[in-house]
Design goal:
It is a single chain. By secondary structure, this protein is an all-alpha fold. α17 runs parallel beside α19. The radius of gyration is 27 Å and the shape is elongated. The chain is 60% helix and 2% strand. It has 25 helices and two strands. A hairpin with a 6-residue loop joins β1 and β2. The chain folds into three domains: 85 residues, no CATH class; 129 residues, no CATH class; 87 residues. A two-stranded antiparallel sheet has the order 1-2.
Length: 381
């Protein structure tokens, strides 16, 4: 909470609360109020004071108030929720109860709750609380950020994620916080969306099973380092899935297209993106490149592979962030799968010895090699 927001909370409070929050007020009174002890104040006003003091300049008072907010006495919390509350108070306490369905429901149904408070809860909510938030379509339609928060929250059921995306698409909403929303929206229109149910759907079960399989595969990886899911068979020369990733690969193929896209976009595990980049669906592959978690190092590795899909190379080439590394530019030029027009635009960034390598390579496309020769001739004049 910013300093500018503190006066906003304090403005509607009674005189005693104003005295407690006055910078020149008695420190002992502040310390007692930070513990949730403010005789003469209603529970809602007391809670507002604690929230304000959690950002006090006095570190000792701030720590006390923060500890109180993490363990609010039930009478104080229930009493406060029974009356009017500042929206910023609900925004501050909401995430602390995002794992508690009963209390989260009280907070979410409070008449003074703001969209920002609902978003703060949705980001860290448990599955039951995510389900509760997803039932309020009116609130979802008011806030792309709320849909994004639920979509990114790994506790949200896959079927619920599909349902809220379908709601957004049906109502012409854009969700800019989801980097591959175009691909998500295209995929959702090719799927049947089941009605909400208390029991997990097939997609929910498949998504959770893939989560477990990927986690187990990465844990079994050598030294815990990030590694490719495939290796080259020394006899046949063909790629094959590494044994430790076989179960993860199998579970990956059980996912719906929207499930694969969601894992590619929201999973912190590189294994998900590596599997997505090899997927047969261009929507899934593009989403993997657009993921916030897709790194420069991954771009360097993927752009060098001769079996990388053309659309993946186009996505990498079209990202100013991913082509910052010189090696990625070189890889794109040298990769025979990079479209000639895309590879040629990076030739001007190559050093002379790299241009010579391109000009003499039998792997790169003829037009690219020819332009490299022309650039060399110009440099030598």
């Amino acid at each position: 909470m910013s300093g500018a927001e503190l006066p906003s909370i304090a403005a509607g409070l009674p005189a005693l609360a104003q005295k407690i929050l006055d910078p020149a007020g008695p420190p002992a009174l502040k310390q007692m109020a930070a513990k949730g002890l403010a005789p003469g104040l209603k529970p809602g006003d007391t809670l507002a004071v604690v929230v304000a003091l959690a950002d006090a300049e006095d570190n000792a008072i701030a720590r006390t108030a923060q500890d109180t907010l993490r363990n609010l006495p039930a009478p104080l919390l229930n009493g406060a929720l029974g009356g009017a509350l500042h929206a910023l108070v609900l925004e501050r306490i909401g995430p602390s109860y995002a794992q508690d369905p009963a209390m989260a429901e009280k907070i979410l149904r409070h008449p003074d709750i703001s969209i920002a408070a609902a978003v703060a809860i949705a980001k860290v909510a448990s599955e039951p609380v995510c389900e509760l938030i997803a039932t309020n379509e009116e609130r979802l339609l008011q806030s792309p950020e709320l849909i994004e928060a639920l979509y990114r929250n790994r506790a949200t059921r896959m079927s619920t994620a599909d349902r809220i995306i379908e709601l957004a698409v049906r109502n012409g909403m854009d969700i800019p916080g989801i980097p591959a929303f175009k691909e998500v929206a295209a995929a959702i229109q090719m799927q049947l969306i089941p009605e909400p149910t208390e029991e997990a759907t097939y997609d929910d079960i498949a998504f959770a099973a893939c989560e477990r399989a990927v986690a187990a595969a990465e844990q079994a990886s050598a030294n815990g380092d990030v590694e490719d899911t495939h290796e080259v068979d020394e006899v046949s020369g063909e790629e094959r899935v590494k044994q430790r990733f076989e179960e993860a690969e199998k579970k990956w193929h059980d996912l719906s297209t929207t499930g694969k896209i969601r894992r590619a976009l929201t999973s912190p595990k590189p294994t998900d993106r590596l599997m997505a980049l090899r997927d047969s669906s261009p929507l899934v592959r593009k989403a993997a490149v657009k993921s916030d978690a897709f790194t420069d190092a991954e771009a360097e590795t993927i752009s060098a592979r001769k079996n990388t899909y053309e659309d993946v190379l186009r996505e990498i080439a079209g990202s100013p962030t991913l082509v910052r590394k010189h090696k990625v530019k070189v890889n794109l030029v040298m990769n025979p799968r990079t479209p000639a027009g895309v590879a040629q635009k990076f030739l001007v960034f190559l050093r002379e010895h790299e241009l010579k390598q391109v000009a003499g390579s039998k792997d790169v496309q003829g037009a690219v090699a020819q332009q490299a020769k022309q650039l060399l001739q110009r440099k030598q004049k």
